[in-house]
Amino acid sequence: MKKLLGVTLGILTAIGGFVDIGDLVTNALVGARFGMHLAWIVLVGVIGICLYAEMSGRVVAMSGRPVFDLIRERLGPRTGLLALVASFLVTLLTLIAEIGGVALAFELASGVSYLLWMPLAALAVWLVIWRVKFSRLEQAFGLLGLLLIVFAVALFKLGPDWGQLLHQATQLHPIGHEGWATYAYYGIALFGAAMTPYEVFFFSSGGVEEKWTRRDLGTERTNVFIGFPLGGLLSLSIMGCAAVLFLPAGIQVGTLGQVALPVVVAFGKIGLAVVLIGMFAATFGAALETALSCGYTIAQYRGWQWGKFVRPREASRFHVVIIVCLVLAVLTLLTAVDPVKVTEYSVVFAAMALPLTYLPILIVANDPDYVGRETNGPVRNAVGLFYLALLTIASVAAIPLMIITKAGA
Amino acid sequence: MSGRVLHAQLHLLDRQLIDRADGHLVGKVDDVELDLDADPPVVAALISGRVEIPAGRIAEVESAVTISTDGLDLDYYDNWIEHHIIDKIPGAGDATE
Amino acid sequence: MRLNELLGHRVIDADGNELGGVADVRLVQDGPLLVSMQRALRVDGLIVVENRSTRLFGYERHVGPELLRRLVHARLGGVWYLPWHEVDEITAGTVTTTSRGNDLRPLEDMARY
């Protein structure tokens, strides 16, 4: 049990990347439209985020410097500001969507409109950040989010033709009347979600919150190599369920209720209860992750005191940023914008933010001033460079593909 | 005797400043004041926002720069927000549970 | 003088040829004793880069992926060390030196610590 509690930072971080509100819907939507023909992207994403999260965690354990410190140091104030604006906007848009997502989960459970739940959801997120200890927050929402494993269990219960699913997964091309452009668009969306920048912001800052030192390198690695693959597994299970249930019937997925349907088909009302709690925990966890990341990035760029390891009054500017972001989230959602649609637009900003976030990590993970003798080996550097190239290609292609496909329509 | 070699831009510029007394984060190194007319020419001060930190206050240059902050007004904005906003919310001075 | 102002200054040699731009300042901690009982950071020389660019990403230290380093260096061109005693005059936007271009030492030859 103690071992499990030690890896909740990795699990919570991964939940924000792989099964937050936007991804819950995207995974199901992709499964319904492409079957498992895009599953390989999730695998590519898991490897990439493991690689870079491990580097950022190692830098934190060895030097105490979180990711945005590195971005400012290596890119300077100007390019650093560009990275800040882009990644802050991705994170803020995701936060807006998550607050909406928490409210949507309550709407599903209660029948009362999500617009009423939304201010309460934002208030709850703020209260947790204001009053609850970091380790407790990460354990509660990391472990509760694991309830989404019910999708994996449901997939077995639905008794799919495993051979056919595997066959789909090895055929890397679009099917039916889907074109290459939409295939590539959703591929980039899945890849971008897996490597979304706030994961490394949250993970590395979380390492500082947990007061990691060089003795915690082991903990850091277990967090990475258990947390992120678990996130990928959840993502694939949701996709698999949709591929089994919706693809043959030709049903399009667009709402959270449809995402939950396969579990309800497999387990009835109990399944619905479990999946609702899991979705609530995952979206709430992602809301905490993104709200904190909004504060982390700005404070680390400017050098302000940040973090939950000091009393709120000692990090006053950090807490004000979080409060302002939550207020902005509520105001945006009050315009009745679809929370799920909001995350789609974050792709545009993610495109700029991705290479600028990961380049400084790769450079510093090689610098003995920061990591002593724990520098990257040649293999990690080669794979790191390969991913940097992938991220750059994805970031260049994202916006044109979004326009061509009308955001995957 | 040869001293430690540092590069002004690489090792000082844009680094995190840490208060030696309590470990709090107090800003970034936004610029470095060089006294090029002195003999020998030296680093005279670090600049953070509007505040000038004399070279004699630098305690350590590692992955962050540790300084002694006595008498420097590095917390001006943080204190302003603390007094006008954060302190008005209940629980601002308590550790989390 | 402020560091951010000095960075990017053009460097002109004794014959009036442009060598490149100032990319960093090399400091050695062996200056006069300060009140903190530490040695001051003495300005030891300038790091000059052929193609004007003020950010080296720390690559003068020769760490990191070989390919990335090569890409950065291809963009920077030559990277040289200009000792402080060879700096003749610093005016608005330019640094004039008493040395000639081909006398400069590549930074790679310098002791890193």
Automatic annotation (TrEMBL), chain A:
Organism of origin: Kribbella rubisoli
Lineage: Bacteria, Bacillati, Actinomycetota, Actinomycetes, Propionibacteriales
Compartments (UniProt record): Membrane
GO BP terms in the entry: iron ion transmembrane transport
Topology in membrane: Multi-pass membrane protein
GO cellular component entries: plasma membrane
Record protein name field: Mn2+/Fe2+ NRAMP family transporter
GO molecular function, one term: cadmium ion transmembrane transporter activity
Domain of life of the source: Bacteria
From TrEMBL, chain B:
Highest rank taxon of the organism: Bacteria
Protein name: DUF2171 domain-containing protein
Lineage: Bacteria, Bacillati, Actinomycetota, Actinomycetes, Propionibacteriales
From TrEMBL, chain C:
Official protein name in the record: PRC-barrel domain containing protein
Organism this protein belongs to: Kribbella rubisoli
